[in-house]
Design a protein that fits this description.
The chain is an alpha/beta fold. 55% of the residues lie in helices and 10% in strands.
């Protein structure tokens, strides 16, 4: 055990210096003597080092946030220790009011933490939680983190900005203090910062705040290193290096002599903050990366997952500047094999396990996280330049070899881009490239299409391979039926493929027609697929109503199905797209809808209000083109209303008679409508008044 010997009078700062010396120099020294000075605070004999200790706090903030901070710490501790926290996907902010008051029992905080996590996992955001008036908002899809803050009249608490405002004058004073010498002895000069804030302070807060003072730090001659000390429970301390003057002098000059593992870790933590300070550091940081990683893998040098992700994302910056070769170098560095050490990339592996579990449970996985997850998007951006499409494909193949469901998912994004741009490239072996992409995609459907999140993306890949022959398309689409928008592919191969790619021979579309009919008619098919298919047909018709002749055979089958509200809205929108010269078809389809709705409402188990129509536009077309049919339709609507359906605004419905050109028919319809209106008004006096003059 290291012996710590003090000379001079005891000082309040001893409580911070002793654990700093014990924890970070004790292993190298059996005895450490320090001398308490007036300025700077200490001289360490064995280390020939001066130390100035500064608490970082804001007395005004501390007074207003002391109680708030204690409560937040209790809630956040319970959140982070709750098993449900591992299921969080994305970054969330929990807004805790500054004037919050709570009971003191720990069970209370455990209950509130569970309530917060349930709200996040159930996507019930923006609502107040329990009696605390806590609200939750989602910041982005990246990472798996729940942060706590306070949004008051002046806006949210920004820890990095608060720390920056308080350390800036602190640094100036420390630089002066460290300029004094004990008996004219030269020595290393360290500033030790002690965190005395009540709100949580994370690494990115620390380094963002320090980075904002970087210009000043470069001018301060007497601050050679800055260390950070965080007192914790049970007399434990967290300590880390925040700044090294010599390291950053070498960074500025782009001339390194040697970078230790500690300095490499420090530089990685400064990576994103420096880029925020100025884009001028992009070139210098690239130089540093090339120096550090010349013979090493990133995972063998950088141990923190967040900085690693930022370094991977740096590839996007390089591509944005047109530095494609540098981006390729960075991608290759990450994709090269690396030594498997006990703790290498431990955080990455832990996150991947959780994400893989979500994918295997067929949950939506939309967040971009992990080093390789971000790298996939760098590759995707690289593939946007067709000059590098082959390199992008090779990188995608390497990423796919990891056979990790989440990384497979992310790798499909560049595959989508590559498949869509393959015909734009000028390479000679374009056919070979296309065959390779298709082979990869087909293999992925065999291995991974059972996972919904992956199937969703594979469907997008095959939007770019519409020249498939009948048998290959049939097999692939059957595998992808778990994926979103696969019905769009079925429509294409059933309706349009026979007249496309004639040079490839006759295409048998019968299996695809049969499958579409099966989707519509079979009770075994999930309603979501039926609804998606109907929506896809509406989307096609919205772009080109003339396609009705091709899609009508499928649409009419929905009119024979038992009434479902989820189909009603889309069928109504399709009816609105029918040209006026085919108004009889509109009448026929609309009448069938009303009949099916009536059949359902007559059943005793139908929930009142579970059916609603938005028929005003359809009725307007009928008033203009088939006015003598109008009364019968509106009578049927009123009957449905009496049975509990919502039919829209009665005033708007009855007012459509004014669009009738024939004066005699218009008068007759007006009289009939007035009778129907009075009938509804007698049942519900709250219906708006209207005139039938």
């Amino acid at each position: 055990m290291t012996e710590i010997i003090r000379q001079g009078n005891p000082k309040q700062e001893d409580a911070y210096l002793i654990p700093f010396l014990t924890n970070f120099y004790g292993k190298r020294h059996a005895k450490i003597e320090f001398i308490a000075l007036e300025r700077p605070d200490y001289f360490i004999k064995q280390l020939n080092t001066y130390v100035e200790v500064k608490e970082i706090h804001d007395s005004e903030s501390n007074k207003s946030h002391a109680i708030w901070g204690k409560i937040v710490n209790k809630i956040s501790s319970e959140v982070y220790s709750n098993p449900k926290y591992k299921q969080v996907r994305g970054t969330y902010l929990v807004n805790v009011p500054e004037n919050i008051k709570t009971p003191t029992e720990q069970t209370y905080f455990a209950k509130e933490a569970d309530s917060i996590l349930n709200s996040i996992l159930e996507n019930k955001l923006g609502a107040k939680i329990s009696s605390l008036s806590i609200t939750i908002s989602k910041i982005n899809n990246s990472g798996s983190y729940v942060g706590f803050g306070n949004i008051g009249k002046g806006g949210s608490i920004d820890p990095s900005n608060i720390v920056y405002k308080n350390i800036k004058p602190c640094f100036k004073k420390a630089n002066t203090q460290l300029g004094y010498k004990w008996h004219e002895k030269n020595g290393k000069k360290i500033l030790l910062l002690v965190n005395k804030y009540y709100f949580p302070l994370w690494d990115w807060d620390l380094f963002n705040s320090i980075a904002n003072t970087y210009k000043d730090l470069r001018e301060y001659e007497n601050i050679e290193e800055i260390w950070y000390l965080l007192p914790k429970e049970n007399n434990e301390y967290e300590c880390k290096l925040l700044y090294g003057k010599e390291l950053f002098k070498e960074l500025e000059n782009k001339s390194f002599t040697e970078i230790t593992s500690n300095n490499a870790l420090l530089l990685s933590r400064w990576f994103a903050p420096l880029l925020k300070v100025s884009a001028s550091y992009e070139e210098k940081l690239l130089y540093a990366l090339k120096y550090i990683l010349k013979y090493k893998h990133p995972f063998d040098v950088f141990t923190d997952n967040y900085p690693l992700e930022e370094i991977a994302r740096f590839g996007n910056v390089l591509i944005g500047k047109g530095q494609y070769e540098e981006a390729i170098w960075l991608i290759e560095k990450f994709l090269n094999k690396y030594p498997k050490r006990a703790n290498a990339n431990k955080g990455e592996l832990s996150v991947l396990r959780e994400l893989n579990f979500d994918i295997k449970r067929n949950e939506e996985v939309n967040n971009i996280t992990t080093v390789f997850g971000h790298l996939a998007w760098v590759i995707q951006k690289l593939s946007c330049n067709t000059k590098y499409i082959e390199e992008a494909l090779n990188f995608t193949v390497k990423l796919l070899k990891k056979q990790n469901p989440y990384l497979i998912l992310q790798s499909i994004y560049p595959l989508i881009e590559i498949s869509s741009r393959r015909n734009s490239t000028d390479i000679e072996n374009r056919k070979q490239l296309e065959d390779e992409i298709l082979k990869i995609a087909v293999t992925l459907t065999k291995k991974y299409s059972r996972y919904k999140a992956i199937a969703n993306l594979l469907v997008q890949v095959f939007f770019n391979f519409k020249s498939l022959d009948s048998e290959k398309a049939r097999v692939i689409l059957r595998r992808l039926e778990n994926g979103r928008n696969v019905t769009s592919l079925y429509i294409y191969f059933a309706v349009y493929r026979p007249s496309h790619f004639i040079e490839k021979g006759t295409f048998n579309n019968r299996p695809f027609i049969n499958r579409l009919n099966y989707f519509i008619k079979s009770e075994k098919v999930q309603p979501d697929i039926k609804e998606e298919l109907l929506w896809q047909m509406w989307r096609i018709l919205a772009d080109n109503p003339k396609e009705m002749v091709n899609l009508e055979p499928f649409i009419v089958k929905y009119l024979d199905l038992p009434f479902k509200q989820r189909y009603l809205y889309t069928v109504e929108r399709i009816i609105e797209l029918i040209p006026n010269h085919d108004i009889d078809k509109s009448l026929q389809w609309y009448t069938a809808l009303l009949k099916n709705a009536g059949t359902l409402l007559l059943k005793k188990d139908t929930v009142t209000g579970s059916i609603w129509f938005e028929s005003e536009d359809i009725l307007k077309d009928i008033a203009k083109n088939r006015p003598y049919k109008l009364v019968a339709l509106v009578k049927e609507l009123v009957n449905l209303w009496e049975l509990g359906a919502f039919i829209g605004d009665p005033v708007e419905i009855f007012n459509v008679y004014q669009l009738i050109d024939d004066k005699n028919i218009k008068l007759e319809v007006c009289k009939e409508f007035e009778v129907l209106y009075r009938k509804m008004k007698n049942i519900n006096p709250k219906i708006k008044e209207m005139s039938f003059d």
